Amino acid sequence: MAVVWAVVLRIRRRIYVVKYEILLLGKTKLSFISEGVNDYSKRLQHYSQVELRTLKAKKIQGSDEQIREKEGEILLANISSSTFPVVLDAQGKQFSSTEFSTIIDHWEGTGIRHVTFIIGGPLGLAEKVLQRAELVISLSKMTFTHDMVRLFLLEQLYRAHTIKCGEKYHK
After folding, report:
1. Whole-structure pTM over 0.90, yes or no?
2. Rounded distance between C-alpha atoms, residue 43 and residue 76, angstroms
3. Three-state DSSP state, 27
């Protein structure tokens, strides 16, 4: 019995290697998206630590570029120097769910312990935020609201972990 328990502990340690932090500008507006975000956040807790950080982006006045720059300053001020920053942007690299699962497995295997996903506001991200990223990904060639991206990212993180663990959700 002790051997089985030791194996379970090893598996759990491996599963909890990477902590995910997701930076969000403002609250999720639509309740059905918020419910989905909460649901997938809870599901992910089975595999990893997940922290959703909602950053207050007060009503910023100015041109689109000025708004992106000010939002960028808010985001950059909340990115730890010890994290692996991943930016979600329409111009980023696209991955299949299986490829994304492989990336997560690579992070675990190379000792990355903290990954911060950065989702911009409705106007996109400032160039300085994109430059800070270690990886820039796109969820699709289609355009989604930044609120939907929150839900889709969490679902894809959950899917990636079920793929890694050989669970049936992916099919």
Report:
1. no
2. 28
3. coil
